[in-house]
Amino acid sequence: MNNTRGSFMGNKKEWQAEQAYLTFVYDKLLATQKQVVAEAEDTNESSKQFVQELSSDLRMSSDSVSDSFESLIEVEQKNQELAQINYKREWLEKQKHNLAQLLTTPYFAKIDVLYPDEAEIEKFYIGVAGFSDEEHHQYIYDWRSPIANLYYENNLGQTSYEAPMGNIPVDLKNRRQLKVEENRLIDFFDTSTAIEDPMLLQVLNEESNAKLQDITSTIQREQNEIIRDTQSEVLLIEGIAGSGKTSTILQRIAYLLYRFRENLLPEQVLLLSPNPMFSKYIEEVLPSLGEKNPRQMTYRDLIKNQGRMLPVDSLEDQLKRKGYTSSVAQMKKIEKHVKNLKVDELILRDITHDGKVLISKQWIFDELSMLPQETEMYRQLEFIREKMTDRLQSYITAESRKDYWRDEVQSLSNEEYQQLFPKGMKGKEEVNIEKIALRILTRRHQKSRSRINRYVWLDMEGHYEQATGQKLQPPLTLDQGTEFAYLNYLMLRKRDERRVKYMIIDEVQDYSETQLYFLAQIFHQAHFTLVGDGFQSVFDQGTTFKKVKEIFETVDFDVTFRELKKSYRSSGPISQFMKNLAGGEKSGIEVVNRPGKDVEAEKFVDEESYLRHLDRLIAERPTAYRQAILTKDSETAVSLFKKLNRASDSRLVADGGSMSFSMKTLIMPVYLAKGLEFDRVVVHDVSEEEYQTPLDLNILYTASSRAMHELYLPYIGKPSLFLSSL
């Protein structure tokens, strides 16, 4: 690759031209921002005024002819006007957000393109968002636009790109990487091949921060192919630590939302995160790419959402749990049970309230028996659920009309009236007794209604035992929870899953075969992006990439497999240590030879001297330097935190439930650090006693891979044999 670096002395004319264009665009951005902010303020004010007028009109309408046809038409017209105002508000807010980003860094790249039969070269500047003026002059192109793909994908010379109107042949004359800050040009590089290392190395050498770094400006060619893939049903990506897997899938989400913006909503994209902490970590990244966040949850959250759910192992329990193993064969047993299930085999329960049976299981059975038996079971159950809701409402209505309510209503205090009618009411004598009784009974039977809607009247635990021959004993393992969730899904068919068009799964190697089969089945209408690293499998029940592919192909998905073998995050010495841990040359890992400090291992004779040294490391942490002490599990993290004297300068993160990226040393288990990066990582006590099994090797590899610039491996007593890789 040939690189030409920009400098004021070496390329004075080019530098001046670039600076002049940057100044021109920046001034345009400022003027547009001022205009958009003013328009947004006016729209917000108009919206408030419109809502007030609409509320007034509705009150007048309800006092006179509230049920007239003309009134209903007027209300509908007003609602449409309000929807248009709200749409404009949202659009202006997005413009404000994009302009704020562009004013920080207007763009990061430029390509020179010559179209066939054209004499003049066209210049395209590329940024995190597009920018044009009112006359539709395009000054900056969105990094996800078709033309921008030339910057990421192709070499100079004759090439082409895909646009909505088809394939466009062009002659790519130049590719330039630019480093700009607001209206100042800092540097530029001209590259003759698809974007590679100059700007990337510069970014990687900078200190870490709470966000993933300048990810749109440093996309590499192999990552770009993944980001823009819209054909694969299942895109399976095996990428080593530091290869940009996380940033690639986030950019892929942003690209998909941009490419299919007419018919793909953020809530139709579901990102399964390895832990809650990782979810918090990336919350700010997608908005910085110009998009709203997709739905995010952990796998535990997902299976809890499938009908009624029993307590499931935490991540810590999952790490320690031994013994229970599941399989796809177990899931097939559940499928067979549901497929062959007859009404007279259903295990039913009464719906009760204060010891009184409101709806008996015999009534439920009788109603089910009258339905056409060829109807799918989940449809029969859904129909009966609705009928039970109607029956409960009929019971409540009948009860509210009984005579004893007059005395009970009269005995209510003013506070109780206020709770029932928070928006106010007329005097007690003028109030409809039946209306108050209905309100009271409705509140009293909220739990009964909830039990009906959650199918508590169906003994799912009993059906699980029938299907598998095993009794459920909470807390469940993740695989048991998966089996139970699958039973819920097959019998009840929650419709939520049909809305998901794209499913993104990070750390796929940590999912069991059972869990992957479950996901493939319930999201069978979605496109999958599965990302992981076999070397970072830190749970016993993980799955090989070969097996992942087989499972999805079994469920009739076409699987496209891609690899990311080049490690960008860590310095050369750290990357080389990771490569050695992974098996050396046979691992296929390519190291970016970025200079850095050697990996340091240090012996301590006892815990006391070791803890003193950790206290000193915490106290001497450079300002703006992100540092973490990583342990094998949560229990060890808690114990270590309590023993340190510098606890006020550190933060314990043991469960992923609360996370702050304040500039303190984080003490945390390695499985919560997945996806995160730090300037310095200390791996707690890499001794022979603590690190000896193949799983321990994966944990050490994963912990080491979180370090960008410094990796410190202290141990008490004898070192782990894995340190011989140094």
UniProtKB/TrEMBL annotation:
One of its GO terms (molecular function) is 3'-5' DNA helicase activity. Residues 218-571 form the UvrD-like helicase ATP-binding domain. Transmembrane segments: none annotated. ATP binds at G239, I240, A241, G242, S243, G244, K245, T246. GO terms for cellular component: cytosol. Signal peptide: none annotated. Keywords: ATP-binding, Helicase, Hydrolase, Nucleotide-binding. InterPro entries: DNA_helicase_UvrD/REP, P-loop_NTPase, UvrD-like_ATP-bd, UvrD-like_helicase_C. PANTHER family: DNA HELICASE IV, UVRD / RECB / PCRA DNA HELICASE FAMILY MEMBER. This is UvrD-like helicase ATP-binding domain-containing protein. It comes from Vagococcus elongatus.
